[in-house]
Design a protein that fits this description.
Aminopeptidase; 8 helices; elongated; binds coenzyme A
Amino acid sequence: MTTDEIQLVPASQFSMEELTAIYNRTRVDYMVPMPMNVARLAEYVKVYDINLENSLVAAHDGEMLGVAMLGVRKERAWITRLGVLPNTRRGGVGKALMGGLIENAARLRLDFVMLEVIKNNTPAHQLFLKTIFHEIGELLVLRRAPLMPPPDPVIADAQRLDRFDALRLVERNHRMLPWTNQSESMVNAQDVSGLHLTLEDGSRGWLVYQRQKFTLTRFVFETEVGAPVSMAYAILSHLHNQYPRLDTQIENIRVDDPHLPAFYEMGYMESFRRVEMWRGSLPAGLAGFRL
Ligand SMILES: CC(C)(COP(=O)(O)OP(=O)(O)OC[C@H]1O[C@@H](n2cnc3c(N)ncnc32)[C@H](O)[C@@H]1OP(=O)(O)O)[C@@H](O)C(=O)NCCC(=O)NCCS
């Protein structure tokens, strides 16, 4: 097969079952196993604003060879779920998929594209450098096991935030977070709520999170006044007292996030790291955002 023979077909022409199957087949040997089922992929498409018309399946002679998806939001796009069948790699399929997605994004007038790659995934990292992505920094995926006894809650005025108030805080937050943690992801996710704390010394801050059946996840936090580490420690002490049985898994926290030491103090462990990469620079419409 030559690269001219690789067909790029909109992912919207395939069923969720077919997309799930090709995705899983491209990931059988992946560094961090993340198999999907149809329900999970459908949820992923919804939460991350995946545009299936502009996502692509690579095919040859009626056989699916690989897949790559494009998330679309205001003035930015996201590349995700890229994979090529193991026995088809190094034949230009990955590059063709990347080129196709970048072209589709450009047709939507989106020149600013984000992605994340697991650290030390050399083939993907090289491919992204080749397609003119540059590194922004490292991201952490952290876990805190369930049933770890939490410390006593730090004395504070603690207010629970319902979904409406929690989302209002997240939407006001002008940081260009990784795609998974952006306000749109929180708005699209179910069972989102939050905690707002005021400490005795006047420090104030909040955490917005998603509570799934067995897991706390999707954390967005902000210190409004005071020191981020003590603020985060206080908020986590309240959160884990409230949900002592739940597992906690959070992803894409920047390594230089000032709240991070509180997470380690609270028993969070690093599961793995990703590298955040951008193509192009922040567009004018997002100029008010900071990293
Ligand atoms: C990453 C992946 C999609 C690349 O697909 P592919 O079809 O093999 O890529 P291509 O043949 O188009 O290669 C394009 C470029 O990527 C880089 N590359 C690909 N495989 C590489 C490898 N094993 N080592 C180093 N660089 C590699 C090279 O720069 C290559 O250009 P070159 O062939 O001119 O040297 C594929 O390895 C894969 O599916 N991996 C598992 C899933 C995965 O890691 N997905 C990305 C998650 S972020």
